């Protein structure tokens, strides 16, 4: 949508007549700041963004922030200087975006959010958000756990009267972690079964496999014979934790119930192998709807402010059957 050289070369009258042709010829340019590559989910999300942009004929300026908010702010500032048509980004953390988004607004460049939520003083600083409902995901983690322990009449391994839970949390300050924590805790607090449970420990594993393993090792050092349930705010951390549990001589999914989030292929494989119990889906395939919405925004058409993608819940008993249909 930038003015093409052909357009400039023509006289003004001819240029006006040629406008629609020039627009059809010029690609929409979108700058996109991704968080990084911390998980299998994120890789699927990035691949989907790139594929969708290509399919819709959009010129994508893609930038990887390596988990740092300051890198995202720099990337957004560069996109503003490059006068892209629209800026998209995944906010690594919820807060701290007001200033840079005001800069984009002053430059009259619309901003769209993907995946994670953000908190800004003024919601007009972004036009739309396409993403995941992490609060609902946190609630589903509790509900699946509570149903499962009810159905299997689970007893505490240490003989006590409460089932002991450890929680691997995501990146500190990220909406995907905050939402899942709040959703889980609020569902627990409101449950008639709340007295069944005790949260032994909760710590961030930064959404990565390596840190999930490391933090689980330390949980096991303190509470090896007490832990009944692991709630992992993403599948990658759960997969790391499974290694720690096996190294400690325990059976994942049997001695310790393992519930993850994302529903990536690696977790399906773990469920098929009998090493994990369930995963709450978080759908990373958001590219198509994101860029279709962006094109509407650029045409001045009305769009919905917040759109959540569809998400399911998968347990080990369905894993083998569902696995071949999984797209990420
Ligand atoms: O669950 C995790 C990732 O923001 C919902 O980020 C996303 C989370 C996802 O890296 O694996």
TrEMBL record:
<dbReference type="GO" id="GO:0055085">
    <property type="term" value="P:transmembrane transport"/>
</dbReference>
<dbReference type="GO" id="GO:0030313">
    <property type="term" value="C:cell envelope"/>
</dbReference>
<dbReference type="InterPro" id="IPR028082">
    <property type="entry name" value="Peripla_BP_I"/>
</dbReference>
<feature type="domain" description="Periplasmic binding protein">
    <location>
        <begin position="30"/>
        <end position="301"/>
    </location>
</feature>
<protein>
    <submittedName>
        <fullName>ABC transporter substrate-binding protein</fullName>
    </submittedName>
</protein>
<dbReference type="Pfam" id="PF13407">
    <property type="entry name" value="Peripla_BP_4"/>
</dbReference>
<comment type="similarity">
    <text>Belongs to the bacterial solute-binding protein 2 family.</text>
</comment>
<dbReference type="GO" id="GO:0030246">
    <property type="term" value="F:carbohydrate binding"/>
</dbReference>
<feature type="signal peptide">
    <location>
        <begin position="1"/>
        <end position="24"/>
    </location>
</feature>
<dbReference type="InterPro" id="IPR025997">
    <property type="entry name" value="SBP_2_dom"/>
</dbReference>
<keyword id="KW-0732">Signal</keyword>
